[in-house]
Write a structure and sequence with these properties.
alpha+beta, 2 domains
Length: 297
């Protein structure tokens, strides 16, 4: 009897392997290397993504960094750049940048703000930040809410410092608090790796973009332009960076898989459908689509 049971078990295992092996092989090929690193040896899963560079998006570009020191190694053509450097948040404007002027900023309002010419209209982009831990972002949320009440058409970018022993759940709760207050883009900084991301109603939360010391980083670019009706339009792109250089097509495909299928985003289980693939003057990028303006999708 025991021998018969072993034979049945062996046949069952063999049948299961035969059924699952093709699916597992397809998944491995699709990932093109689960970690997105160059030593995986797989070909690109995205043959339609070209190499080189294309055209710069029309409009005013604002780069968002997890660490401004990375800008010295991987500078995206932009009219302004925002991010942390040596513990403080800075807005750096390109010399002679067209279409953007600095607006008044300061407590209890934004750290900095840009008034951007967008087609026949103008669009204000405000930058908030706080060194507080995840559990103490109430004052930042209150400042954003007051600003949104005074500037209902503005796009708000909020940076929050990620420190131990903050848990992912604490950061997620605090990020949603900032989003409810009116922030269209929330970025956690201070961590040394690219974190998960979540999305709802054309508002984005990034739980880490990496630093200049990280092997893998993500740089964001806001593109402020005009829509077909002559009003403002804001789009968000993301650029995977490996060791200070843009990712190859194969690495890009693997990073896309990781962002879309392995993100900690319980509120958005269809995240993969929210991220497109793009190509511009920097190279391959993730196209996160349009950003809500003044809380409106």
């Amino acid at each position: 009897m025991r021998r018969t049971q072993l034979i049945i078990l062996a046949v069952t295992i063999a049948a299961a392997v035969a059924i699952l092996a093709p699916a597992l092989a397809d998944r491995a090929r699709e990932r093109g290397g689960a970690t997105g690193r160059a030593d995986r040896g797989a070909e690109s899963s995205w043959p339609g993504i070209a190499e080189g560079a294309g055209a710069r998006p029309e409009g005013t570009s604002i780069a968002l960094y997890g660490d401004l020191a990375l800008k010295d190694r991987f500078a995206i053509p932009a009219d302004a750049a925002f991010g942390p450097r040596n513990g403080t948040l800075e807005l750096i404007e390109a010399p002679g940048a067209a279409g953007a002027t600095r607006a008044a900023a300061g407590a209890p309002g934004p750290l900095a703000a840009l008034d951007v010419k967008a087609a026949a209209a103008r669009q204000k982009v405000a930058f908030f930040g706080s060194p507080a831990a995840a559990g103490d972002l109430g004052p930042l949320a209150a400042a954003i809410e007051a600003f949104e009440a005074a500037e209902p058409g503005a796009v708000v970018v909020a940076y929050a410092l990620s420190v131990d022993p903050d848990t992912q759940m604490m950061r997620a709760s605090a990020a949603r608090q900032l989003r409810r207050a009116g922030a269209e883009i929330v970025v956690w900084y201070g961590g040394d790796r690219v974190g998960a991301l979540s999305h709802r109603d054309q508002k984005w939360i990034f739980y880490g973009l990496g630093t200049a010391a990280s092997r893998e980083s993500l740089v964001l670019r806001l593109v402020v332009g005009g829509d077909e009706k002559g009003g403002p339009s804001v789009e968000l792109h993301g650029y995977p960076v490996l060791g200070g250089r843009t990712a190859t097509a194969r690495e890009y495909g693997a990073a896309y898989w990781d962002l879309t299928l392995e993100s900690w985003a319980p509120e958005e289980h269809l995240l993969k459908r929210q991220i497109g693939l793009g190509f511009d003057d920097v190279g391959r990028h993730f196209s996160f689509g349009k950003v809500a303006i003044g809380g409106r999708p």
